[in-house]
Amino acid sequence: MTETKMDPMIESACRNEALLRQSLEDADVVPALMVLAQLTDESALLEEAAPYIEGAWSYQQKIPPELAKRIRERLIGVLQDYAQSERPVPRVVPDERLQRIMSVGAGQQVPASYVPLLIEEMRLADQDPRAVHWHSGQAPESVEDFRVVVIGAGLSGICAGIRLRQAGIPFVILEKNHEMVGTWFENDYPGCGVDTPNHFYSFSFNPKNDWSHHFAKRDEIFEYFRDTAELHDLRRHVRFGVEVTRLQYHQNVGTWSIELRKEDGALETLDAQAVISAVGLLNRPALPAIEGLDEFAGPSFHTARWDHGVDLKDKRVAMIGTGASAMQAGPEIAPHVAKLTLFQRSPHWAAHNPNYHKPVSAGQQWALENIPLFTEWCRFLLFWAGSDGFHDTLQVDPDWTQPELSLNRDNHAMREVLISHIRRELEDDEELIAKCVPNYPPYGKRMLRDNHWYRTLRRPNVALENGPIERITNDAVVMQDGTRHEVDVLILATGFHAGKVLWPLEISGRDGLNLADAWKGENPRAYKGMTMPGFPNLFVICGPNTALAHGGSLVFHTECQVKYIMQALRAMLENDWQAIEVREDIHDRYNDEVDERCRGMVWSHPGVSSWYKNSENRVTITSPWKLVDYWELTREFEPDDYLVTPSAIVPAISPAIAIVNDPADQSTDEAAGQSA
Description:
The protein is α/β, with parallel strands linked by helices. The chain has 21 helices and 23 strands. α1 (8-15) packs across α5, α2 runs antiparallel to α5 and α3 (29-39) crosses α5 (65-85).
């Protein structure tokens, strides 16, 4: 049994009964119940509360006040006993007991296969179970001559950089912007925020207990990821203001040449043994192909390039697109503009979540910071509520009688819940309801959060237009039916080139193979979303079929992928391999299974057009796997899946690479990671 001694700060806080009591009365009772169940061998209160827990979201907890009071009182007594006796806190208990605690907290049976995953995700058994360590306890001497280039300093690049630094592998991160954090740096439009609960949308190795809201806004998210990078001293490993334009593999020496463009337009070439692409999907704004777009005389900008110098007050504003950024920005600007006209190609499903605008209470924040295991159990609840718990409802039932509207009985029930919410918000305005109810199954496209979107549509200064746009003039948007909407400002909420994986990078692999040719333009495929035959020592984070559309957190998938990549690099260095390249048969077999699974899921629905799939209806972006499946797939790097080239005499790497490698800082970095 793994145990840790109670932190002195926690011990002191637990001795303060008045503060402990006040905070627990304000905090969620279910994670408190789960903490109690882990700290004791008692099951009575756990089982008594079980019938009142309808799901893992906090608002699905219906525990009666009297029972909640008894849970709090018992936990206070147990915590005080631990503090007074100085007994260590048991972080891991038998799997069967953990599974029962999880199942009660989630309001449904959690399969046993999730127990080892959640022990890792909650960091119950180890300080940092996703850190990759050298088998001998120290890095081989060859690491000093091994160079890694990471493309992109977004959250995936930050994660990769942290792990490379901990391992002592020399690396540089190349970033086209002047700041880290990628999409959370670039997107700062009004209302910009996360639609995954942020206590889960955060690194497992650096939990943040003082989030202001359950679904944080952009500034707080940006600061969290930037601060995480600063904690691990990543900034000195980053070259800002350089954009990678081309990669070329040299198979005779097993290195990549990385061509990058500097801000003055000059080109520079670096060399490295391995490249990790962390460019993401949501960083190249897509502009609509509308006649006359360039002729508009007023201010015009994309939501991802929001022009804060434009004063929207009392202006007539046109917003083209009604997807994620529009649903966040629209309600924020509507109260201040003279008129907001929203141009919609097709409606999106938007779910109501009572926590979406809810601040995290002071008591909840205190409990997260001070009560042992409270943070871990809250993270589990969010993991379960927002991901695999409903994955099965996204499978096509071939015998379902309404396939054009839904997939199965559960998916249809979800549709009815969503429509009921739309009706309530629109106060049974049938004309407006008809514009807002999608004609495809729930989750066919990205499920959005209702950021007061529907009530915004009821405002007298807001209009929703469903018809096609014919052209844009210098001062108006003209519809196909001739209707003319005069506007002062044009905002494009038209998304990104998310379906163009790694675009516009030019990548030339072994024997001159071009990646765009291998993918035939719009047919990206990769083994576990990370490696491709013909492209040795090249790893992709957020590659084909790894985006999460059923729920979960991009951070979780990133951590899985980075751990796998770090294991691959470790294998190369410890075995003195010059190159590793995924076997074509392994790659093809894996992608055949991905395609087979996707064919039976909602994203392949013929009535859905989205960036998740290509023109041939093949799903290329989203992952068909449950989180537990993908975790198992990426848990261990298997050398047998790869062609291995032993090391030869390799010429020295170009000194222009400017990679920081300071092994003396490694112990400091590890200490920072443990304290995070």
